[in-house]
Amino acid sequence: MATTEFKGTNTPPNFRLDPNKYESLGDIVAAASVAKPDVRDMLVKTYGDQGITGFLNLTGAVKNAGTSDEINWFEEGRRHTKFAHGASTATGASHVIALSATENTDLDPAILRPVQENDVIMDVATGRRLIVTDRDTAAGTFTATDLGGNSTNLSAGDFVIIGNMYAQGTDQPKWHTETEVQKYTNSYAIVKDVFKVNGSQATNIGYVNVGNGDYRWYIHGENETRQRFLDKREMTLLFGQKADTSGSVVDLGGGIVGTEGYFSALEKRGLVVSGAATSPLDSIAEFDNIIIELDKQGAPAEYAMYLNRKQSLAIDDMLASGIATSVTAGLPGQFGAFNNNADMAVQLGFKSFTRGGYTFHKHDWKLLNDPTLLGASSVYQGAMVPLSQVVDPRSGSRAPSLEMNYKAANGYSREMEHWITGGGVLGYNQNGVDAVEFNYRSEVALVVRAANQHVAIKG
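Request: output the structure for the sequence above.
Response:
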């Protein structure tokens, strides 16, 4: 190897080609910067499809426009009368009977509803029949003769009016009974939400494909906010409650009065089944009790059951315990809500069985299983929804039992409002803010007709 001699006073440079004199590439550039990150661009849905909306659509709730701050509708009352009474004081077969205080409240004393002379009434507890002979409107009592001559005092209880009897040549009754029509009112709820992203974040590109080959993360955030808004709107319709503003008990300010949701309506006017927190319905005897109550309410013969997982499994166990052959026969009329097509019912996630002339289509309700929503509580286990329409007593027109209303007039609808504002970001130039806002608003209310035919299942 040739060497070079350096002549001079300074230290000569080293021209040796020794590899140890070189720094490695890894010393110059950090290994993390050299290696290309191996990032999977799929966004993993760890909790599956988290959408919980759809109950109102699946149950046939229709959408109607409203033009006032309240919705009013009318429902027909019972055609016949059952009323409470106090204990009687007997003189022979003649009994002086006081109306229960609840029956004599806000009633015209000149009429003394609900009975009049010559009415034939039957005591619910004993079956004894009596005929009304006189009424004392001032005292709130009436006199009735036991048709069987029984002089034993009656205990407090209930009477039903089974008819009347008049002597020959007597005049027509002095009073008549009005068919009860009940007026119901519900208010609208205004539901709002917003999603914001600044201009810088709107231009950032990430590794994760948030859908359709788009790698801008804010797209995912906006979609999640929209879905969360729709969930909140549906849950407001299901679990909303009117505020008790009587006597200033509750003052929410700003004119907020609340809205009656589906379960609030059922808890006031419907049938409520309650029991153990895990499985309120897990026996045929309990189902039979419900069927008996449905008969009393003139209920239709077909129901959709929306249940949380525990309740659904309890019914599965009940059906598998020995009666499956008698309630899941697959009769042609069993799937009336699905065009008598069993396959259609299965495709929509329903399992059907019959009992006592009623058909029940069972379906899981994700809302009641989500541990961050109603799945965190054991209060609400499910609902039984009649698959039929109801008839308006005044107009005679048929209407669905569930109706979702939204404010609308002259082409302007508040069912689902969505608008975007920004200060130049993404091309929206309504303000001077370096951000863009996605806004959502809806003004809705639910009408629950004939709530007495619906069943709330509670723990």
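The longest strand covers residues 435-448.
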